[in-house]
Design brief:
There is one protein chain. The chain has about 280 residues and is an alpha/beta fold. The protein has a single domain, classed as Ribonuclease Z/Hydroxyacylglutathione hydrolase-like (Metallo-beta-lactamase, Chain A). The chain is about 25% helix and about 25% strand. The protein contains seven helices and 17 strands. The strands form three sheets. It has a seven-stranded mixed beta sheet with strand order 8-5-4-3-2-1-17. Strands 9-10-13-14-15-16 form a six-stranded mixed beta sheet, covered by helices on one side. Strands 7-6-11-12 form a four-stranded antiparallel beta sheet, with no helix packed on it. β13 and β14 form a beta hairpin.
């Protein structure tokens, strides 16, 4: 599997890409091309072009959850594909995969709408959509986890505004938060968006679904932004016992948390333009 960072909060020195407080990865595995999240703007498309990655040719678009910094780029992807059709440019129509709540409206008092701009009905006019709470294998070795089991009492408990459906409104525990996992020859590579469901919960569920205890790498946002001492201490303890080969903590992981994690694991630099390979 080859993974390219298209969007992150940071960019790498001497690599002239666009960064934004968002996330988007491009994944190549078993002749399949997968976009994991789309960031906030069209930065992921601009960066992909510089990296010679053609986002007109995708098999899947996997969404980690419905927040603005992971889904609002979808509108630009629609435009890219619509223009390809109009100009008779060779393209492949991807299938969107996400949790059943991923396109529901998400409301935060101080801001308003922080969820997907596009409803399921609007988006389905452009791309086929598959919604699943259950794990779904995109390739023989790459799985979309679906709804994460929440095992630990120190994470995955935060309410972020409300979910508003056509029938009801309820507290948003971000149950749509999920991840992708690749089964490499050395163990699991776990790709996360924001880990609202809890980074340790995600790892435990990945191990269960893939029937594998070894962890090669965890890449993405760990949702450790000014965490409580209780959460950070328990997360560090868990990672110490897990003994992953390395961590690529990024996006919504603050410096204090990275420093704490670095006492028990190898923390690697992350930025737009980074490319990683696993076998």
């Amino acid at each position: 599997m080859k993974l390219s960072i298209l969007v992150d909060n940071n960019t790498l020195i001497d690599r002239y890409f666009f960064g934004e407080p968002a996330l988007s990865f491009f994944i190549e595995e078993d002749n399949k091309r997968i976009l994991f999240d789309t960031g906030y703007s069209d930065a992921f498309i601009k960066n992909a072009e510089k990296m010679r990655i053609d986002l007109r040719d995708l098999d899947w678009v996997a969404l980690s959850h419905g927040h603005v910094d992971h889904t609002w780029g979808v509108t630009h992807l629609i435009r890219l594909h619509m223009e390809a059709k109009g100009e008779l440019i060779i393209h492949n129509t991807p299938t969107i995969i996400g949790h059943p709540l991923v396109f529901e409206s998400k409301l935060l008092d101080s801001v308003g709408e922080i969820g997907s701009i596009l409803s399921y009905n609007k988006l389905s006019r452009h791309f086929p959509i598959r919604l699943s709470k259950q794990p779904f294998w995109l390739t023989d070795k790459l799985v979309f986890l679906g709804e994460i089991k929440r095992k630990f009492d120190f994470e995955g408990k935060e309410v972020i505004g409300k979910v508003a459906t056509t029938k009801e409104e309820f507290d948003d525990y971000v149950f749509d938060d999920t991840a992708l996992v690749y089964k490499s020859s050395e163990g699991l590579v776990i790709m996360v968006g924001c880990a609202h469901s809890g980074i340790c919960n995600i790892i435990e569920y990945a191990k269960e679904v893939c029937e594998e205890e070894r962890i090669v790498d965890i890449i993405g946002g760990f949702h450790l932004l000014n965490p409580s001492n209780f959460q950070l201490e328990n997360t560090v303890k868990y990672i110490k016992e897990l003994r992953p080969n390395k961590l690529h903590a990024s996006h919504c992981t603050d410096l204090h948390s990275k420093i704490a994690l670095s006492t028990v694991a190898d923390i690697e630099e992350v930025g737009v333009g980074l490319q990683l390979e696993y076998f």
